[in-house]
Write a structure and sequence with these properties.
The chain has 621 residues and is α/β, with parallel strands linked by helices. It is built from 21 helices and 27 strands. It folds into 3 domains: 232 residues, Alpha-Beta Complex (Spore Coat Polysaccharide Biosynthesis Protein SpsA, Chain A); 221 residues, Aspartate Aminotransferase, domain 2 (3-Layer(aba) Sandwich), CATH 3.40.640; 106 residues, Aspartate Aminotransferase, domain 1. Strand 10 and strand 11 form a beta hairpin. Helix 19 packs parallel to helix 21.
Length: 621
């Protein structure tokens, strides 16, 4: 247990700000992180550190904070100081208002920081008149930055906005966590006189760090830093920060659930993404640099309309412009198909978005039978015909099985369906990862009943640009295009299409690298005991877990124990879906790390099952 006999008995929490960047969420200190406010969390930590009284400086919606906290918290007395100028002042003024409480050792805490309780103990262990919690600075962190000498003392403050390039050129620098311990002697002899002079001189909009910086610069005080890089903390200024704090301070299940509900943006968090499906080798750096040059005009000006976009795309895919429909990702096109196709037969398992856009009464599910999940043209056609559907939807390569329907088989199916006036929609979002020659795009002019949908986001590695297209004969394409607004693709995506013809060789090379990685990854997973690995034509693999292991549990353990995010097939229309994983392929080292982690998780599950099975026998003995 922590010895609190020498710990500060008092704390000051600065909680007067408006928190305008969080929108209409109320006072920022009362913002909830997993059901508990930032301020309540801070008070919990202070009470656990032995603090007997905390002074809260309030301003914006002060009454709400008083009502939420009261006069006591966890045995700790609560005193309030109210700022009447919180809209026009900064934290130096707030702290000045609490000057009468700064006569003894205090923890000083900003009211928008979520932090690990151990951080306060780290401050206490470091000697000095003032100790600031710090962590290595990185891009994305704003606020006060300090440079340290070899003894861990602060030798320089950088207060206020600094260009990232400037900070990167300074060598190792540290971001202040906005939590510090200020000793009574330093407060009385150095800090308070300087703070009084700052406010008296009109510095009401200054930060209290200016006072600390001045004391260090003049050599009047030695301030120390407690390196808290090993502890969790986050300063919540806006909604992006709030998301990061919710992720960082959640339980494993809460963090995993949070990420799943985000549907993307995983790159903002410390995970290895084996869940989302995209091309890691495209676009090349040269293309990104060219996009940067277009960024401002692409953002501020209106993009071109459909006709111009069709021409740009036609130059890439070598198809007539009038046969193309460009959309804000394939998902926009799938929504339109859901309104226009009528009654449909869906090959399942398949991409869930197709099931989601149709009314249940419109759907005839035709199951691809395990263990091979192959499409039998004769049986499939007969079932579709018996159901009297208007259209059939096939995903090839399939999501989640990763297996493509052979091109000749799809031609045969299209011919059979065409005889009865039935449309065939083939989603080819992953076809570029097949061996060349698999796509049906060159068959469009031969089959008026053929519609091809493709997500460029996946194949070209541009999930953030949201590009997709549909290819069909002219009249069919025109009918779909009429369902779209004139501006449905943003200016940066337009710039990408203009540049893309110059990078087709790079694109083909990138797909070849994906195929190489996929083959190597498949071999790695094939060596995991008990795992069934299915052949893949895409940039992901489907595996069946051994008996005794289930997808939700395995995904949870991969995330909790190894920081890996992947997907089980429990939400798919397939039998025993929770026994299957769909695993996105990444680079060699990450793929090997995944295979090793999965082997460890499955080994632990097997050992646990053996232990449970042995318990009755042990009891009987």
């Amino acid at each position: 247990m922590h010895d609190t006999t020498s710990a500060p008995r008092k704390a000051v929490v600065l909680a007067a700000g408006t928190g305008s960047r969080l929108g209409a969420l109320g006072p920022k200190p009362l913002t909830l992180v997993h059901g508990r406010s930032i301020l309540h969390r801070s008070l919990d930590n202070l009470a656990a550190a032995g603090v007997l009284e905390t002074v809260i400086v309030v301003g914006h919606q002060a009454d709400r904070i008083r009502s939420a906290i009261g006069a006591e918290h966890a045995g700790m007395a609560i005193t309030y100081v109210e700022s009447d100028r919180f809209r026009e002042t900064n934290n130096a003024y707030s702290l000045w208002l609490a000057a009468e409480h700064l006569s003894e050792d205090v923890y000083l805490v900003e009211g928008d920081v979520v932090f690990d309780p151990a951080l306060l103990f780290e401050l206490e262990r470091v000697p000095g008149g003032g100790v600031l919690a710090v962590a290595p600075w990185r891009r994305g962190l704003s606020g006060t930055v300090v440079a340290l000498n070899t003894d861990g003392r602060i030798e320089r403050f950088l207060v206020g906005a600094q260009e990232a390039e400037v900070l990167e050129n300074l060598g190792p620098v540290f971001k202040t966590v906005n939590i510090c311990l200020l000793r009574g002697d330093f407060l009385r002899t150095q800090f308070l006189p300087r703070l009084e002079a700052l406010i008296g001189g009109g510095g009401t909009q200054s930060y209290y760090e200016v006072v600390l910086a001045e004391a260090v610069h003049e050599g009047a005080a030695e301030l120390a830093a407690a390196d808290c890089r090993h502890l969790s903390w986050f300063e919540v200024d806006d909604l992006t920060d709030l998301d990061a704090a919710c992720y960082l301070f959640g339980s494993d299940d809460e963090r995993l659930d949070f990420l799943r509900k985000q549907y993307g943006g995983y790159w903002r968090h410390d995970v290895v993404d084996h869940r989302l499906l995209y091309n890691l080798y495209f676009p090349p750096d040269r293309l990104i640099e060219e996009l940067k040059a277009d960024l401002r005009p692409a953002v501020v000006h209106y993009p071109v309309g459909h006709a111009a976009l069709q021409r740009l795309l036609g130059a890439v895919v070598r198809q007539p412009a009038e046969c193309l429909v460009i959309a804000n990702g394939a998902s926009e096109l799938i929504k339109i198909l859901g309104r226009t196709l009528g009654r449909v037969a869906l090959a399942v398992p398949g991409f869930n978005e197709y099931e989601a856009v149709f009314d249940e009464a419109q759907i005839e599910r035709i199951e691809l039978q395990a263990p091979l999940f192959e499409l039998d043209v004769a049986a499939f056609t007969a079932q579709a015909r018996a159901a009297q559907v208007d259209a059939v939807v096939i995903t090839s390569p399939n999501n989640p099985t990763a297996m493509a329907v052979p091109r000749a088989t799809l031609v045969q199916l299209c011919t059979a369906l065409g005889e009865h006036g039935t449309t065939l929609v083939v989603d080819e979002s992953f076809v570029d990862f097949c061996e060349p020659g698999q796509s049906l795009e060159n068959e469009i002019q031969n089959f008026p009943n053929l519609v091809i949908v493709k997500s460029m986001s996946k194949a070209y590695g541009i999930g953030g640009l949201r590009l997709g297209y549909l290819l069909a004969q002219r009249q069919a394409a025109h009918r779909i295009r009429e369902q779209l607004p004139i501006w449905n693709v943003n200016g940066l995506a337009e710039s990408f299409l203009r540049l893309l013809p110059h990078y087709q060789a790079d694109f083909r090379d990138s797909c070849a690298l994906v195929r190489r990685d996929r083959q190597e990854f498949s071999a790695m997973l094939d060596r995991v005991p008990g795992l069934t690995v299915f052949p893949s034509d895409a940039n992901y693999l489907m595996v069946r877990l051994p008996e005794g292991a289930d997808g939700p549990s395995v995904c949870r353990e991969l995330f909790a124990g190894h920081g890996i995010l992947t997907k089980h097939c429990g939400g798919k229309s397939m039998r025993d879906g929770e026994q299957f994983l769909r695993i996105a392929c990444r680079g060699g080292a990450e793929n090997q790390a995944f295979a090793d982690a999965l082997a460890a998780v499955l080994r632990a599950a097997t050992d646990a099952n053996r232990l449970v099975s042995a318990q009755p026998a042990l009891s009987a003995g």
